[in-house]
Amino acid sequence: MIINFSNLQIQYQKYKKRIDANLEIILNKSNYILGEEVELLEKQLEKFTGAKFAITCSSGTDALLLSLMAIGIEPDDEIITTPFTWISTSEMISLLKGRPVFVDIEPDTYNINTELIESAITKKTKAILPVSLYGQPSNMDDIQTIANKYNLKVIIDGAQSFGSTYNKKSDSNLGDISITSFFPSKPLGCYGDGGAVFTNNEVYAKKIGQLRVHGQNRRFYHKYIGIGGRLDTIQAAILLAKLPFFPKELQDRQRVADRYTKHLSQFANIPVIRPNRSSSWAQYTLKVNNRDELRGKLKDKGIPTSIFYPVPLHLQECFKYLNYNKNDFKVSENASDQVLSIPMNPFLTNDQIDYVATNLRENIK
Ligand SMILES: Cc1ncc(COP(=O)(O)O)c(C=O)c1O
């Protein structure tokens, strides 16, 4: 049996008619920058998330950059985040000459351990930047309470969690600003790079919209130093075609996760989703003791796996200047040694899920 990690081919075949039709319209019009497709997508994203403003952009990484620029991060400002995530989160803080201040994660959700946040706050702290890892929001009640107490901004890295909820509210409609990524393998992916920033704050929304086009407030007039960070019109057209199918895809990701959990809960450290949250299941990630051996055995059976993330950020060469050491964030380090993501996408059949789970059960230690 051949198992596909993300199944983007099947996805395209399923939605081909709508996607091709939308692309043809763009190609015939030959309008490739912004335009009505981008505007319409932003309206639909606002409707889907409940956020007042959705501003699409060129990637999740640029969405983080634009958000940090919008809150006015200055050199040496400190932003509290976790070391167990994709690099973009801290990379963009550092790129703006701010300082990522790491706190460790919870061992079962892999999200920021909110009990550790207050002790990391200093006079220089400007914001908290939680990551909704693998698709599940962090403990936003705690984070918002701390942010209110110390007058900090909250930016959510929801690159992996579009479609997830916290107390029934979209992850994109929490904090001061929330971002997502439309990288092809993300829960809602385009067919290239793309991202979006969400906020209920009109001032931020206007600023982010301008920063996205080189800080222009009107053509050829530059209010800010910005970036070339637009979403391609072609990518907007693809997302417009895919968005109507997304709620069903989320249901199917939940179906896959539930079936994995049913098979594996007695045998492995399965993902834990807190009762007040839903995950968009960007990944289904286990913790195992015999990862290398297990990966090899699964590979032999045609089952691809991934490791998100094998090296936590505080141990990356580029962050040496932050002066962190091994054992500073033991939960993150332990996760890096043990996590294993197994195939997760809405198109896995029950037979395929059973095949993956059976092979896992036979080889897991
Ligand atoms: C947690 C996290 N943050 C940020 C990003 C960056 O998104 P993009 O790849 O669209 O730049 C990703 C994507 O991999 C991610 O997983």
| Overall 3D shape | globular
**CATH architectural group of the largest domain:** 3-Layer(aba) Sandwich
What's the alpha carbon Rg, rounded to whole Å? 20 Å
> At the fourth CATH level, what is the homologous superfamily of the largest domain?
Type I PLP-dependent aspartate aminotransferase-like (Major domain)
Task: Tell me the strand percentage band.
Answer: 5-15%
The helix count comes to 11
Classification by helices and strands: alpha/beta
Could you describe the largest sheet, including whether it forms a barrel? 7 strands, mixed
Q: What small molecules does this complex bind?
A: pyridoxal-5'-phosphate
Description:
- The chain has 365 residues and is an alpha/beta fold.
- It has 2 domains: 8-244, Aspartate Aminotransferase, domain 2 (3-Layer(aba) Sandwich); 246-363, Aspartate Aminotransferase, domain 1 (Alpha-Beta Complex).
- Helix content is 38%, strand content 14%.
- It is built from 11 helices and 14 strands.
- The strands form 4 sheets. The chain has a 7-stranded mixed sheet with strand order 1-9-8-5-4-2-3, with helices on both faces. The chain has a 3-stranded antiparallel sheet with strand order 7-6-12, with no helix packed on it.
- A hairpin with a 2-residue loop joins strand 6 and strand 7.
